[in-house]
Amino acid sequence: MIPLTDFVAGHTYKGEDGGLYGNRNNEPPIEHQQSAKRQLAEIVPRDTEGNPAADGRIVMISIGMSNATQEFSVFKRMADDDSSKSPSLTIVDCAQGGQAMHQWASAEARPWPVAEQRLSAAGVSRPQVQVAWVKLANMRPQGDLQKHGRELYDDTLRVLRVARQRFPNLRVVYLSSRTYGGYSTSTLSPEPYAYESAFVCRWLIQDQIQEKQGFDYDASRGTAEAPLLLWGPYIWANGVNGRNSDGLVWERADFAKDGTHPSRVAARRSPVSCWISSRHRPSRRRGLLPSVRLFPPESPTPAITKRSN
Q1: Looking at CB atoms within 10 Å, which of 40, 54, 106, 270 has the fewest?
Q2: Which domains does the chain have, with CATH numbers?
Q3: What SS3 state is found at 134?
Q4: What whole-number distance in Å separates Cα of residue 299 and Cα of residue 277?
Q5: Is the Cβ–Cβ distance between 291 and 41 less than 8 Å?
Q6: What is the gyration radius of the CA atoms in the chain, in angstroms?
Q7: pTM flag (> 0.90)
Q8: pLDDT tens-place string over residues 197-231
Q9: How far apart are CA 125 and CA 119, in angstroms?
Q10: pLDDT tens-digit profile of 257-272?
C-alpha cells in the first residue's frame, strides 16, 4: 500500500489512481480553490444568533470517534496556548469515543446533543460554528473497498448534511482518513480498511467538485445541502516506511496496546495536532485564506493566526 500522496504514473490500487484529489494531484482544482476562498470569506465573527458581529465568535469543531477526540483535544490545547491564535476563534472538541460515522449519521443520533452540550459549555452557539474537522471511520468494517467504502461514504454524506442543518453557518469541512492500522490487534479498524478510508474522503470531495446531487454548498444557488469539502491532514503512512512527501512514519510505540488508538506521545506529534506547526505542513502551496486569518497563507488547513493588517 502506497500513500495517496506518493503514487507515481501508472500505479493504481483496486482501480483507484493516486493523489488526494485524484489523477495524482495533491491540490484542489483551481475552480474548487476559488469556491473555497469564497466560502472562507464568509467566515467572520458572529453573535449567538449567527449575525456578523465584531465581538462575536468563530467556532471550529471536530466530529468523529475516539481517535479523533484524542488527536483533536491535543490540537485544541496546543492551539489555545499559541499566542498567534485569533481572539475570535473558539475550538470545541465534539468528537466522542465509540461514535464513528455510522453513529453520527442520523439527525436524531446521540452524538449531536452531546456536541451541543459541549458548545454550550464553551459559551458558544450552533450558528457560530463555521469550520469543522471530520475524521472518517466506521467500526469493524467488512468486505472489499466498494462495500465498506460505499457504506462509509453514505454514512459520512449523511453526517455532513445533518451538520449543515444543525450548524447553518458551517462553511468548510476538512476531511481526514484513518492513521495506519497495521499494528491493530482487533477488528476495530485494521488494514487495509484504515488505508482505504482515504479513498472515501476523496470520493466525497470529487463528487462535490463534479456537482453531484446532495453536495451543494452555495446558498446563493438555492438551499445549501452540505459544507464545502477539502482535505485536512492526510495522516496515513505505511508503518516505518516513510512517506516520500514528508517522511511521516508510524512506529509500534506510537500506538496504545490495541495498536489502533494513538499513544499520548503520538497524539501530540500527529499531523492533526501539529496543524499549528509549519514543520509538519505537507505543502506550502495549497493555502486557502479566509477573511479572518484562521489560516496562515502557507497552510492548507485551519491554523489559528490573528488577522494581519
Answers
A1: 54
A2: 37-280 (3.40.50.1110)
A3: strand
A4: 9
A5: yes
A6: 18
A7: no
A8: 999 999 999 999 999 988 999 877 777 899 999 99
A9: 6
A10: 988 888 876 666 665 6
